[in-house]
Amino acid sequence: MTEMIKLVLAEAPAEDTGRAFARIDPDMMEALGAAPGDIVELSGTRPALARVMYSHAAERGRGCVWLDAAGRENTGARNGDTLTLRRVDCSPAVRVTIASRAMEPLDLADLSFIANRIDGVPARMGDLIVLPLFDGRLARVVVTETEPLGSVIIGPQTVLAPDSTPRNSNRYRARADNLADGVAKMRYENVGGLQRELMLLREMVELPIRRPEIFARLGIAPPRGVLLHGVPGTGKTLLARAVASETDAAFFSVDAPSIMQKHYGESEAKLREVFDKARAQAPAIIFIDEIDAIASKRDTSVGEVEKRVVAQLLALMDGLSDRGSILLIAATNRPDALDPALRRPGRFDREIAIGMPDRTGRREILAIHTRQMPMEHDVDLDLLANEAHGFSGADLSALCREAAMHLLRRKASGLASNEAPPQDLRVAAEDFQAALADVIPSGLRELTVEIPETRWRDVGGHERARTFLTEWFVWPRHRPELFSSLKLNSPRGVVLHGPPGTGKTLLARALASEAGVNFLSVRGPELLSRYVGESERAVRELFETARRAAPCLLFFDEIDALAPTRGSSAGSDVPDRVVAQLLVEIDGVRPLGDVMLLAATNRLDRLDPALLRPGRFDLKLRIDLPSLPERLQILTIALAGRPVEDDVDLELTAMRTEGWSGAELRRLSDAAAWQAARRCVAMGAPARLNSEDFDYAFDETQELVRNAP
Known about the structure:
The chain is of the alpha/beta class and 709 residues long.
């Protein structure tokens, strides 16, 4: 058994923020002679204290110690550095004086809240402690004095006192001055749902900046640029700032539009000035946001200024090898608009696509944004992550903020202006549900994406169709392990066909609701345009939106109008090109991912045969007119919640409506309700449906059925 061990520093998971944990493997804890909760000293550039805890099972065997951002700052070490750990004994703290690293001093309310949250945290003079305050602020405090001196444990019995000494006093040790300056640095633990992208970016950034001698030893040039591209709000800027903060590199953020100037040569000079400043403070990272604004394709640029700026940027990137340890990171949501000369090795050496977060990523992001939020026990982040389809990181941040605002509207709207807010404010599940209804995902606003409220109970009849659709679409989502073990894939697409009014669209909406996926509905004629290329572009954008909204059910209503048999349209080749684009999107090079296809038509014979082969819309499900029991069930659902007299015989009505569709049966119940309303207004009779109302509605609706085409 040894008294000291050496481990490699790694960043702790987000849930450990502010807990002063040092997570290590169980065998390392045994070698250290410690038990969970014991205090250890970690020696890096500076010694620091932490409570040792077991590492997570999935992370074991790597020889690492996991610290949060405050712990890493206290040790003065960075990820990948080696720390020496030894167990130490600490005395209970009688009194601890703390000072805020923010511009505003701590008040008594802050100290009271911190005292209730801090328990068992080890500290010594000069240590940084990070704690969430009640109002959502992040308390970054430095211990300036302890009683007794040395290493202590802060607990409920400890008296916390604010340090009123001026910030520039000698009482602040140099060690404390090197810590946070009041503006919280962006750390890896503040990045959620982007673990793969973060790993790729760290490979390109950390090693060249922190260990340039490795590249010199290998005789290769370090990478010069990284291009981050993806839809807005996915965390491109967040990634760049986190990497710059963790590597201790100087960070220069440039908004691309600010480079453009009206006078000749000023734009190029402004760009050169940024690179010169970075060279003077190397190692440095230059981050250009929205780079497509200054580096668009030169062959399509109208002005000469844009072409000169692109040329200047190319020259500066080619000269990065002579400018020291400088890395260029750029972000855009329009990578195809960039000049091709930028997208070659030696300039942007790697392109990293930042996609929309999946369910696990959304759960991580929600945990980060609710880390400082007091919540009721009924808030289920897993359920929220499952419901927030198509939400980017920025959308999830807005969701948490809107939930808090909804709480304030519920609780604090009646408070007087001089009245203190209640101390028991806690965000509940109903606040998040209200926020889900109000926050629209930013990347999906151009089309209506929804999760329908229609359920199977709202669909009368069609038991066979419901069974098949459940097996094909719901089971793969609710029992993925079963389909994975059987190597079984659900069908890519299903066509519902049958007479009009039989409930094909209703089945589609209920299916999306039962499967718990987004529902994206489009009618065939909506995508057609008389302008060349516009229809194909609309199809591409539709599928791109469906991919962003995944898991998504993409429903084509009246698909025969969008994809008729090629060669059957006289005088126009637009339908043929649209069919070709549909085929490419469904099974082309770019996979659909978690997008399910459903279509409806009452003219199956008009569909192009290429769409109906296996791998596309490979299953055809006929939706027939309802039978007698199904008609009775539809009438029962249509009349649910309506006051009906006892003399109404629904079985007789169902028998009289042989050959009617579900839509016509619902029309019958609505017509009976209208007749009851007329009678109530004219005669003052009770608002209840009777048999006479149904007789009148039957005659009226039967005329519509007879005259239907």
